[in-house]
Amino acid sequence: MNVRADARERRNAIVDAARAVFTERGHDAPLDAVAELAKVGIATLYRNFPTREDLVTAVAVATLTDVREAADIALTAMSTDPTNAWHTLVDRLVELRLGALIPALVERSFTELAPEVLAVREVTKSKMTATIGAAQSAGLVRADLQPLEFVMALAKLTRPQIELSDEAMPNLVPRLVAVFMAGLRPDGTDLPV
Hints:
α4 runs parallel beside α7 and α8 packs antiparallel against α9 (172-184). The protein is mainly alpha-helical. The protein contains nine helices and no strands. The chain has two domains: 1-50, Arc Repressor Mutant, subunit A; 52-184, Tetracycline Repressor, domain 2 (Orthogonal Bundle), CATH 1.10.357.
């Protein structure tokens, strides 16, 4: 592996670790926890991301890129199996745990986000709009569903529920997502959990 590829791999490991730490501990978690999970020294973290804001920006770009890629895969699959494509998209967005990451991504207003985040957000929004349009055409979701409200609702449903243990409310997130998805259907029928 060449030096450039090694540096890129290390940078990606830091971003992946930051996503995991922010998901579990919040976006104000100590950066040494990120460095530890990424298996790099804190100095290496700061060489790659001089400020917390730089790291949050990288996490935002990575997360939005993952959302866009999931929407792209779903959009391609809509032509052959729209129901499965839609379910796969929702499952992937839930897996990304957007609810835990959104506070780090939108701590301020959307207009204050870094230019690279805004650029990726626009491409992601366009792809999500097309995918939702395909789901609407297939009769899977209501005609008035907007991309931002869809993503934000999933984010709200998947945010950490620290006040409830899994023992008290088993399968809470999948159940909430299933109820939400049923509400999006034009006919209101329930979807399997």
